[in-house]
Each structure stands twice: as C-alpha cells, then as structure tokens.
From TrEMBL:
<keyword id="KW-0963">Cytoplasm</keyword>
<keyword id="KW-0573">Peptidoglycan synthesis</keyword>
<dbReference type="InterPro" id="IPR004101">
    <property type="entry name" value="Mur_ligase_C"/>
</dbReference>
<feature type="binding site">
    <location>
        <begin position="112"/>
        <end position="118"/>
    </location>
    <ligand>
        <name>ATP</name>
    </ligand>
</feature>
<dbReference type="GO" id="GO:0008764">
    <property type="term" value="F:UDP-N-acetylmuramoylalanine-D-glutamate ligase activity"/>
</dbReference>
<keyword id="KW-0133">Cell shape</keyword>
<dbReference type="Pfam" id="PF21799">
    <property type="entry name" value="MurD-like_N"/>
</dbReference>
<dbReference type="Pfam" id="PF08245">
    <property type="entry name" value="Mur_ligase_M"/>
</dbReference>
<keyword id="KW-0132">Cell division</keyword>
<dbReference type="InterPro" id="IPR005762">
    <property type="entry name" value="MurD"/>
</dbReference>
<keyword id="KW-0436">Ligase</keyword>
<feature type="domain" description="Mur ligase central">
    <location>
        <begin position="110"/>
        <end position="291"/>
    </location>
</feature>
<dbReference type="InterPro" id="IPR036565">
    <property type="entry name" value="Mur-like_cat_sf"/>
</dbReference>
<comment type="function">
    <text>Cell wall formation. Catalyzes the addition of glutamate to the nucleotide precursor UDP-N-acetylmuramoyl-L-alanine (UMA).</text>
</comment>
<dbReference type="Pfam" id="PF02875">
    <property type="entry name" value="Mur_ligase_C"/>
</dbReference>
<protein>
    <recommendedName>
        <fullName>UDP-N-acetylmuramoylalanine--D-glutamate ligase</fullName>
        <ecNumber>6.3.2.9</ecNumber>
    </recommendedName>
</protein>
<keyword id="KW-0131">Cell cycle</keyword>
Amino acid sequence: MSKAHVVGLGKSGVAAARLLKREGWEVVLSDRNTSDTLLKQQQELAQEQITVKLGYSLELDGTLPDLIVVSPGVPWDIPALVKARELGIETIGEMELAWQHLKSLPWVGITGTNGKTTTTALIAAIFQAAGFDAPACGNIGYAACEVALAETSPDWVIGEMSSYQIESSVTLAPHIGIWTTFTPDHLPRHKTLENYYDIKAKLLRQSQLQVFNGDDAYLYKIGASHWPDAYWTSVKGKDYLLGAKGFYIEDGWVVEKLQPNSTPQRIVEASALRMVGAHNLQNLLMAVAAARLADIPPEAIEKAVREFPGVAHRLEHICTREGIDFINDSKATNYDAAEVGLASVKSPVILIAGGEAKPGDDTGWMAKIQAQTAAVLLIGNAAPAFAQRLQEIGYSNYEIVETMEKAVGRSLELAKHHQAPVVLLSPACASFDQYPNFEARGDHFRQLCLELVEIGTGD
C-alpha cells in the first residue's frame, strides 16, 4: 500500500488526509503543535484509520513516504521538504491534490495581496445566482480537498489562492485566473518581491483566460508587455484598459469590452453593490469579468450583486451605538489593507490597530492615520513599535491598551469625546500574538461590540 504523509492538522490537512484515505493510501497526518482540540481530532481520525502524530516535525528517516502533502500554512522551504524533493519524493500542496481530483472541471483561481476574499465571495455568489453549483474554497469557505470529497462534483470550483498554495501546486491550471492587487507581503517567507511576483504569475500563466486589476500600480506598470492577451479592469474608464479589452466603470455602470473593436455593453450599475469603499468597485469589476467570461447573463449578475452582503471581517458593519458605527476589518493584516480600511469609512475614526507586525512600507498608512483618525488604540506585540512610529510623525493621540477588551471599552468613550462616527478595527498586523487567526480576532471584536450595545440598551 502506498504511504502518504500530510503535514499540518488544519482544515486543509484533515481534508487531504481523508481524500487520500478514500483513494486507498496509508495516511499519516502530523502537526508540530499539540492541544486539547488537536488531541480530540487525533482520536476522531484514529477511528477512520488515519494516524495522527502531534508535537511532531516531519523527519525523513526509516521508511520514506511515497507522497507528502503540505497544508497552506506550512513553509515550502523548510529543510524536511527541501530534502524530500531532493530525494525525489513527490511533494505537493493540498490545493494541488484537490486539483488532481477535480481538474476535469472549470476553475476560477483568484490571487493577489488584497481583495482576494471579497472578489472570491462575490464570484461564487454570482455563479450560484446563475444556477451553478460553484463552491468557494481555498483560503475562503471550504478547503479545496473538501470540495473533492463531496459526493457530487460541482459545476465550477471558485478558488481563493494564496502565494503559499500556488507555490506548492505544480499542475494547477484554472480556466479563468484573476490577479487582484500586488504589494509587498509575506516577504519573510518569499524573501524578495520578484519571488513573490513570480509565484503569483505562475497561476496566471497556467490559466486559459487572465483578468488583471489595471488600477494596481505594479500590475499596470508590468502591463500589456507581460500579458498581451489579458482582460484588464479599471474604475477610471476605458482609457485605462491595457490591450483595450476588459471591464471598466463609466457613468456609474460596469461596462464590458470583450475585444478592442467590439461595442461596449453595460452589465450592472456600480451602485448595486452595497459594500463601502472605492476598492470594492475594483473587486466588483473583477467578479463581473469572471462571470461574463463564463457566459453568465447580466440579469443573474445584477441579482447576485444587489443581494451580496459583503464578507465577514472585511469592513463588516457590526452594530451602531449612540450613532457610532462599529466596523470589523480584522482581515486587514498588512499596511496596504489597513490604509484601504481607513479610506473606506467616514472620518474622524477611532482606530484599533496592532497585533503581530509584518515587514512593509507603513508610510501611506501613517499618512491616513494622521488625516483621518481622532485617536488610535494599540493592542498586541506591535503596540510599542507603532507608538514610536506615531510619535515620529508627530501624532500623539494614541494609547497602548494591549487587549481587545480594553480597546473596545475605551473606543466608545473616545468616540463620544471626539464626536467620531466610526470605531474601526483595522489592525495592519497578523493576529498570531493573541489569536489563532484573524477570524478569531474579528469574532472577539464582534462579541465585545455587541455586549457593549446590550449594556447600553439595558437588555
């Protein structure tokens, strides 16, 4: 019997292990961590004849596996995986394993530094409104291998793909590839901007049809010379379409131009999308592009766009207390995303920021803080460094409060004092210093805000 080793006991790793077990593999699943939750999972999977090793890092001694499958969060260049590839052991990511089982179906692959999740969720909503079974998977919704495990195959697979997932996918080739934005992120992992670009570009090169955000400075600069057959999108109008075909906003409408000399066609009013922020018009354009390239009629697109509620943890309106809106933007885990968050809400803002800082250029974000916030509340490991940065730019209205509980309680007092219409959690940081992931951080913020409202109404 062939032996497979799956690294990482998250949702993706468990789904990969189950898929391989169904295919007749002997499966070992390992995770370097251990906890009560993982121990419980270990017991459950043992009943499915899947061996789980906790507190274990992959070692290649003794009997070698025939296949190694890597969960999305596991670095591709850890010594054990480098050695495995040198030894000729097939080593792939969980997304690639799902692709190998689902490659007879058309995929939409969405990548980019920011904007992926909203674009992916909106594409899935449009395809589903058109009557397709089109689950969102990857970094959003299901793990890709969960889709492969389903009893019936979907019509389309809508996959949000991080650079980690693309890096560990060898043959993944979507029907439609979409690149939302490109800014420095994950550089501790990918080392250089060029490496990071090349990984993302791999997905687009292997896609039959390509859609690019023409308003992204980096992608626009590389432009038509790199991608002569691509469709480009622009909120600034048709003059910004590289290659003269794509999707743009004009007179308040999303307009398509499928060939340089074709007649433009209005598809949907931009105002149909309820989400705040100019960047969401760009997400709308890319979602409409995917739908139209899949021959979905404008009526289905309009219905889905009008009903689309937005994405949890991305400028998500939680509640209003005494005229103050509490907004959860926990998904803003880097400076660019947090800058977009501030640009998208009414000012002045009471901003809650901090967590585990990432490398990157914070100058744009700092300028937005200066221009749009009444006060900043700092949490997590990054708080002292962020406080120093704010001092350097001459901004003094900040407080280090350390925890989310203190931040939410204090934010209401400050919002009243400064007559600020918005309290915004937009951390510009990863969450791992205080939470397992950005979702848990956003959920905690939501819970605290709702408790605040209940206290205020005396429920």
